[in-house]
Specification:
The complex is a heterodimer of chains A (530) and B (351). With 530 residues, chain A is mostly helical. Chain A is 66% helix and 6% strand. Chain A has one domain. In chain A, helix 1 packs across helix 15 and helix 8 runs antiparallel to helix 9. The N and C termini of chain A lie far apart (63 Å). Chain B has one domain. Helices cover 76% and strands 3% of the residues of chain B. Chain B contains 14 helices and 4 strands. The longest helix of chain B is centred in the N-terminal third of the chain and has 33 residues. Classes of the chains: A mainly alpha (530), B mainly alpha (351). Chains A and B meet through helix 2, helix 3, helix 16 and helix 17 of A and helix 3, helix 4, helix 5, strand 2 and helix 14 of B.
């Protein structure tokens, strides 16, 4: 029967939600951390008065504007998809999760209404103190957006503070208990820390890329004995893009030659990113362990799938690798460390860990290998982050942080690791709570809209095409910004172009001035004349 | 269906307050995104790149704020009328998904046309902007028509098929909304521009005003026959007295509108704003007319606002935040429009 192999309308609806939410979350995962990073940079600038902080701030501000815009665009779709594709869930759980999501919308709205535009365009207009306040409020606001949406998400995992009506609807009883439901503090801490690491890895990779490019430029001089400016060689050797083409290097030469050593802004990025990894990546491991403990308590089936445990055991092993086989109820070809899982889950060498076989079969996650492997992907990437942070610390102690090519290359390779890890983590938690939407109460199969298969197939295909075109173009543009060398007197965001993240702020009014009136479309501020 | 009689206190007032707030959010959306979608719809009539640039610059500072009301309308509906959200959105699945994709595409095209590196690129982003605007307007009109026609419900769920939204009437409302948005766009340009673009906008405003008035007449004539409740509201005796002022006011506004258009000088000031404000008035009255037909149903013909409402605990909880933030957002929006008053010319660029 070929029918059995084809996906059902439910499968497609799930895939559509997964597809759109993964695309969406790539942007906030980056901007939540970036907003805080910008606040820190601006704070350091105000505190020390050093130009390098301001220049780095401005460099990342342009990137923030674009990434935030894509987060907003992809977010609009999410606020409708609960209704279009998950209408039964919306009807039944809407009275509880609806207001939480409503607060998320209002928070984001409020941000757009004011502070984001001031942050993007107002530095020369509103004064330093007020601008710092706007930056700090944007950072706080992105955190609160995450707060509300994760609260709603956590409630679906660990519902609390509600009454279940006879017709299956959830109605709120205690908002405090709903918002701070059992898994929320852990999920919030783990996710926001994940976002910080994501940002640190991207900032570190960009810094490393520019350091490496400069380093290679110097080596090319040494090897060939060519007499030329560093910038020009950089352009010749490595950079195919027009932005740092040789012509522009000449324009930069004057300022760069006055600075000692490699690009100080790239050094700052790389150094701060390595500090962040060194300190925060191990903290994240602890937070992850606590989150896992919470899952062990509230969603044992998910945890068993993550661990690949089918048998309830005392002194359960931590399975490093293996092939979980739901049919057979076994994890085959295990490579395991005895007793370790009991230790970190129960904090007892011989603690009892429940296996899937002691949980009714109809409550098992529907795709156990996916949960199992996504979990290993996330944890593996986490260990790589700890490793990179540690190596960074060692090289820093040896005074070789900025001129160790293999370290720079490793940091570049790890650039997307945070995005991959948050995506893998999201898959663990969401695939792991299957087959429920409201854990233990409402099944996914009973949550979907009564939409026929061809309709979902059509919309999914349309989303795939439009998202790849639109966000593909956006990401290409982000990479173009990444590849621009961070410079002294870094410009403000381009003023000749509207951007969604300016929101309804009168951005152009705060930028009204001699520079703004003449800005033609192509004159993105940092671009040198060509 | 009768109004529930056992409603008292918050259980009566909260759904009413929220129905007004959601209706207001949707209306603000229609007014504000209406004219900037209209600019996109009018793009094919603007052959010169310079004209398109000026037209886009008139909306550049405000277009995104306009769109956020749509999110508030959608997100708010889930929180306070989850049943309506759960029935209406699946019923309008295809038009809504197409609308979302069109808005995504159009939004990005809007930004990318400023970043285009050559004329060919810009031409394609212009097309994407224009086609996206047209599709968004058309699908919104279709969604409205399908919604008004009535949604088939069983229990607490949508019970129709995935093509139910397509009918001659919904296509008519789709085209009607395109014409209406084009009218708003033309009147906006009439107000905000001068010279040849102003003259062209005047011609377009005439044309699309005729189309809009024709569409209003046609839709109004069909409406009472869509659902028995509508006919009872509009055509039976005591109700007729209450409902009659709406079409009379519409006729009056149409007369004032063409009068204002004929007097148009292009010399600036609030005189130039009159056609735009009168066109908005026309939208407002049509919306009120729709409200008169629908009241108090939120999912015609199955559920009224009290039946679809979330419990008072949910509606009250969100109302606290809305009561604080919505006035601030409104004030801010007003401030932005005030800040960008006056004509936009080619020299003034984007600001």
């Amino acid at each position: 029967m070929i029918d059995a192999l084809l996906p059902s309308a439910l499968d497609l609806a799930r895939f559509q939600f997964a597809f759109t939410v993964v695309w969406h979350f790539l942007f906030p995962a980056f901007t939540i951390g970036l907003a805080s990073y910008l606040a820190v940079l601006e704070g350091l600038w105000l505190w020390t008065g050093k130009a390098v902080y301001l220049d780095t701030f401005r460099y990342w501000l342009k990137i923030f504007a674009v990434a935030f815009a894509m987060g907003v665009v992809s977010g609009i779709v999410m606020s409708y998809q609960f209704g279009t594709n998950w209408s039964v869930l919306s009807d039944k759980a809407g009275p509880v999760i609806g207001p939480l999501m409503g607060y998320e919308v209002l928070t984001a709205f409020f941000l757009e209404a004011g502070f984001l535009g001031v942050m993007l365009f107002g530095l020369d207009r509103v004064g330093k103190g007020l601008h710092m306040l706007a930056t700090a409020l944007v950072a706080t606001g992105t955190f609160f957006s995450a707060f509300w949406i994760l609260s709603a998400n956590s409630w679906l995992h660990t519902p609390a503070g509600y009454t279940l009506l006879p017709d299956g609807r959830f109605v709120p009883e205690d908002w405090w208990a709903i918002i701070f439901n059992p898994s929320f503090p852990f999920r919030l801490a783990h996710t926001v820390t994940g976002a910080y690491l994501t940002t640190a890895l991207i900032v570190g990779a960009v810094g490393a890329w520019h350091l490496l490019r400069e380093h290679r430029g110097h080596r090319a001089v040494r090897d060939t004995g060519m007499e030329s400016t560093p910038g020009a060689r950089t352009g010749d050797v490595l950079s195919p893009d027009p932005i740092s083409a040789p012509g522009s290097a000449a324009a930069r030469r004057g300022t760069e030659s006055s600075e000692a050593g490699p690009n100080p802004r790239a050094r700052l990025m790389f150094s701060m990113a390595m500090w962040m990894l060194l300190i925060v990546a191990p903290i994240q491991a602890v937070l992850g362990d606590l989150h896992g403990g919470n899952t062990f308590e509230h969603q044992p089936a998910k945890l068993a799938a993550m661990e690949g445990h089918f048998h309830t055991e005392r002194g359960a092993p931590a399975i490093l690798f293996g092939l979980p086989d739901a049919e057979a109820g076994e994890t085959r070809m295990q490579v395991a460390i005895p007793n370790l899982a009991s230790l970190y889950l129960t904090h007892d060498w011989n603690g009892e860990v429940r296996g899937l076989r002691d949980i009714p079969r109809d409550q098992w996650p529907t795709n156990i290998p996916l949960v199992f492997w996504s979990f290993r992907t996330m944890v593996g990437l986490g260990f790589l982050m700890i490793g990179l942070g540690t190596l960074g610390g060692i090289m820093r102690l040896r005074g070789r942080l900025f001129d160790t090519p293999w370290l720079l290359r490793a940091a570049i390779a790890m650039g997307p690791a945070g995005l991959l890890a948050v995506t893998a983590g999201w898959i663990v938690t969401e695939a792991g709570r299957q087959p429920f939407t409201v854990y233990g109460h409402l099944r996914t199969a009973d949550s979907a809209s009564p939409i026929a298969l061809p309709a979902v197939a059509t919309s999914l295909a349309a989303f795939v095409v439009v998202y790849f075109v639109v966000f593909g173009a956006g990401i290409w543009y982000l990479f173009k910004l990444f590849s621009q060398t961070p410079r002294p007197q870094e410009g403000a965001p381009p003023q000749g172009q509207p951007i969604r993240s300016a929101g309804i702020t009168p951005a152009p009014s705060v930028q009204r001035g001699p520079a703004a009136s003449a800005a033609p479309a192509a004159s993105a501020a940092p671009q040198p004349a060509e | 269906m009768d109004l529930p009689t056992d409603l008292s206190g918050w259980a009566f007032w909260l759904p009413l307050i929220w129905a007004v707030l959601i209706a207001l959010a949707v209306f603000l959306y229609v007014c504000m995104d209406g004219f900037d979608l209209g600019i996109g719809i009018l793009f094919p009539f603007m052959k010169e790149k310079a004209e398109r640039d000026v037209a886009v610059n008139t909306v550049a500072p405000v277009w995104d704020g306009n769109e956020t009301w749509l999110v508030l309308g959608g997100g708010g509906l889930l929180a306070v009328f989850p049943l309506a959200y759960a029935v209406v959105l699946p019923a309008l699945y295809m038009p809504l998904i197409l609308m979302l994709l069109a808005l995504v595409f159009r939004g990005v095209a809007f930004e990318m046309r400023f970043r285009a590196e050559n004329d060919t690129q810009q031409l394609w982003w212009d097309r994407a902007f224009s086609w996206g605007s047209m599709l968004a307007a058309f699908t919104q009109g279709i969604a409205l028509g399908a919604f008004v026609q009535g949604i088939q419900v069983e229990g607490r769920a949508y019970a129709g098929g995935w093509w139910d939204w397509l009918s001659p009437f919904s296509v008519l409302t789709g085209l009607a909304l395109m014409a209406g948005y084009a009218l708003l766009g033309a009147c906006w340009l009439l107000w905000k521009t001068e010279g040849p673009l102003h003259t062209r906008a005047a011609t377009l405003a005439w044309r699309f005003a005729l189309a809009t008035v024709g569409a209003i007449a046609l839709v109004s004539a069909i409406m009472p026959f869509l659902q028995p409740a509508f006919a009872a509201r509009w055509l039976s005796f005591p109700n007729l007295l209450l409902a009659a002022p709406v079409p009379l006011l519409v006729a009056f506004l149409i007369w004032r509108f063409f009068h204002a258009l004929a007097e148009d000088t292009g010399h600036g000031g609030m005189v130039d704003a009159r056609p735009f404000l009168l066109a908005l008035g026309l939208f407002a009255l049509s919306y009120v007319g729709l409200g008169v037909s629908m009241w108090p149903m939120i999912v015609p013909p199955a559920f009224n606002i009290w039946q679809a409402a979330a419990p008072p605990a949910s509606q009250g909880f969100l109302l606290v935040g809305a009561a604080v933030l919505i006035p601030i957002i409104l004030a801010y929006t007003g401030y932005v429009y005030w800040l960008f008053r006056g004509k936009v010319t080619h020299e003034s660029g984007y600001h």
